[in-house]
Amino acid sequence: MIRVLVAEDSPTARALLVAMLSADPEIQIVAEAKTGIEAVEMAERLRPDIVTMDVHMPELDGLQATERIMASAPCPILIVSSQARDADISLSLDATRAGALLVLPKPEGPLSARFEAEKRHL
Question: Which residues contact 48 (CB under 8 A, 6 or more apart)?
Fold first, then answer.
């Protein structure tokens, strides 16, 4: 079982990610963080196998939260951001410098023609 912490401030995007990941019987969502600070605290307390992290969050952005998690409770971190759709190479570089493994675009939603492919990729 892969234990996942989902860090996303948007309730809609968070619910979509949780639903997509929960559809896989090998994945268990252990917590949902709404802020970067919550993500750090939950990662330290719960020690998930992987964290999905948004970039733009209140209190502490996703890259800062990634750095803190890697310093206090290292685990693989996957940045999931709408910014990634813009082929923003600087985001990928900043994310890997902070300790993230990969940057993926935020899924568009179940009405998108690419939804199933995005779900499998995630």
Answer: 3, 4, 5, 30, 31, 42, 75
CA of 5: how far to CAs of 79, 90, 95, 111, in Å?
A: 12, 25, 17, 25
The region that residue 109 occupies, defined by phi over 0 for left and psi between -120 and 50 for alpha, beta otherwise, is left
* Sheet with 2-7, side-by-side order of all strands: 27-33, 2-7, 50-53, 77-81, 102-105
**At 87, phi and psi to the nearest 5?**
55, 40
pLDDT in tens, 55-112: 999 999 999 999 999 999 999 999 998 766 555 577 788 888 888 988 888 887 777 7
The structure's pTM equals 0.90
Q: What are phi and psi of 7, to 5 degrees?
A: -110, 110
CB proximity list for 20: less than 8 A, separation 6 or greater: 107, 118, 119, 122
